[in-house]
Amino acid sequence: MGDEKFTFESLQDPKTIRDYLQSVIDGIDKGRVILSTEGQEIVLHPANLLKFSVKAKKKSDGGKLNMSIAWKESKREALKVGEIISISS
Question: What residue spans define the domains of the chain?
Answer without folding.
Answer: 14-70
